[in-house]
Amino acid sequence: MPFVKTNATRPRFFSNYLRTGLLMAGLIALLALGGHALGGTQGMVLFGLFGLVTNFVMYWFSDRIALMAHRAQPVTRSEAPTIYAIVERLTQRAGMPMPRIFIIPSSAANAFATGRNPRHAAVAVTDGILQILNERQLEAVLAHELSHVKNRDILISTIAAAVAGLVSTLGYAMRWGLMLGGLGGRSNDRDRDGGGLAALAWIIVAPIMALLIQLAISRSRELGADASGATLCGHPEDLASALRRLEDSQQARPYEFAGPATAHLFIVNPLRGTAAAFMNLLSTHPPIEERIARLEAMRV
User: Fold this and answer.
1) Annotated active-site positions, please?
2) Cβ proximity of 134 and 109 under 8 Å
3) How far apart are CA 18 and CA 90, in angstroms?
4) DSSP three-state, residue 115
5) Which residues, in sequence order, are bridge partners of residue 100?
6) How far apart are CA 133 and CA 111, in angstroms?
7) What burial letters (b/e) apply to 228-258, b meaning 16+ CB within 10 Å?
8) Going by DSSP bridges, is the β-strand pair 121-126/111-115 parallel, antiparallel, or unpaired?
9) What is the average pLDDT value for the chain, to the nearest integer?
10) What's the CA gap between 101 and 80, in Å, rounded?
């Protein structure tokens, strides 16, 4: 395997995880503040418990939901020998169990991984990606996806999306509370007015902040998977060329099953047209140019 600058990329790798941890803490703090504004300490505890239940459900069922949403079909070794050979080689190198392999019936070129941990993981690739990438590029893409699994990125992103959704739901609940005459059962008019103004500010700002934090977490995890995936396959230039080809293909042939709820799972952003982000700040993925530049910097 060619030498890759793993020592040089390690500080950036850990920096991505530190950033992710801080962003996740920010999401949870938003949820706690909203629950407190809605119902005091009891509201904070209630929404905290609701958040735990939601995350538990997402923990156990997110992989099935994602695979069903994208019409992914399981394939056997005889049906996809090249994919099985590549994934077996990579998982042995990474010390991971073999994930389930799925094919998505789409001529668009893309791939994603899902699963709460390496023992319950699945990798799905489209028919289209098998048509436009050579074997080395496909190996680099699968290394990226397996890195997501090994790094628990799917679980992190799923929980971030769930907490962000709870923040938005809490905003709607607080809006109805204001419309119906108060929040948190306050009897004092002055307290109600002050609480109402604070709640109104929270209703407007918090869902936007939650969305931005969720997207920042997704972008951070993509950069981390690029770095660790390039190290796993040993050829960062292959991942860079694969990303370039996938992005060009996605522009020409958009993915027909794309949706905002699962866009963060894919190696390249499947959203295009009016559904796509209109600037990098509102994208689940870092700019392709930035990702390619980072990968090229890993080469000897």
Assistant:
1) 145
2) no
3) 26
4) strand
5) 122
6) 12
7) bbbbbbebbbbbbbbbbbbbebbeeebbebb
8) antiparallel
9) 79
10) 9
